[in-house]
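Worked example 2:
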Amino acid sequence: MSNKIVVAICPGNFVTGGPEVLHQFVHCINENGGDAKILYYPFSSVFQVPKAYLKYNVNICSIDDVKNKSVEFVIPEIFTACIKELPGNNFNIWWLSVDNYFEYKNGSFLSKIKLSIKKLIKFRTSPLTINQLKKYKQWVQSYYAQEFLGTYGIESSLLSDFLNNEHLNQDVDMFKKENIICFNPKKGISVTNQLTNAYPNYKFVPIQNMTAKEVSELLQSSKIYMDFGNHPGKDRIPREAAMAKCVVITGTKGSAKNEYDIAVDSKYKIDEEGDQFCAAVGELFQDVFDRFDHHIERFEPYRTKIASEEAAFNQQVLDFMRYTRVK
């Protein structure tokens, strides 16, 4: 057994997709016989594991705990400025997003998220540049990020994520499905507004101000989940919607453009810049409502892929452990 510790840097008191995969990562290393911990950021504050993540096998540490120890750090791309505060030189960069990296660098990222993150503003420093990051090992949550790094001549390895069992083991009553189109109002709202204005007779329901249970209930009762956002990584909500037996309709930005991160037929990905965009989406909406059984069957391969992600992630974590020699 190696004496090396894996430490994942994670923003404190946040329950979103990025922090969850960081906790999943630490959990999988510990379950596979390694020694991994979470180090919450800002380092000067004291945080506890969020209630939502207590189900994971996770221990936390402080920056003082890791001094004078052999540590392999894992750092999300937007927090790479904290490298200068960390001991040693074993740093792994994990690209959980592409777009957020650039938004965070130019300052717009913080203006778009919840007020609760304002407590981090005074700690905010710009992430390291691409050229500064090149010397470190790169890991990616999505094929989109892998393609992005490839344009800079940077090689990377896949380290993705997975949905929890509550999403995978749903008992969806198809007879309770309604002609509802649900959407995340934080994603592509200008395009969403264009569609809601064009089709006032359809029932659009935003996913907002809801508990996790309420989100699940909405997805289970809806026939369509649409997402015309930027897709900065392999987003969770499209996968959650697919497992709730929704037809997932997206644009072609970010990770939605490739066939791996959102692995659905191209007919369900409609170019927002196309001349007939609005009409094409409207026709697809109506066809899904008219022939829902036909369309939902075409999502079976995507649901199968989503169900296999935990096993794939576990193998990727084992690859990480071998590469970093932490076991």
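Residues 5-161 form a domain with the Rossmann fold fold (CATH 3.40.50). The first strand starts at residue 5 and ends at 11.
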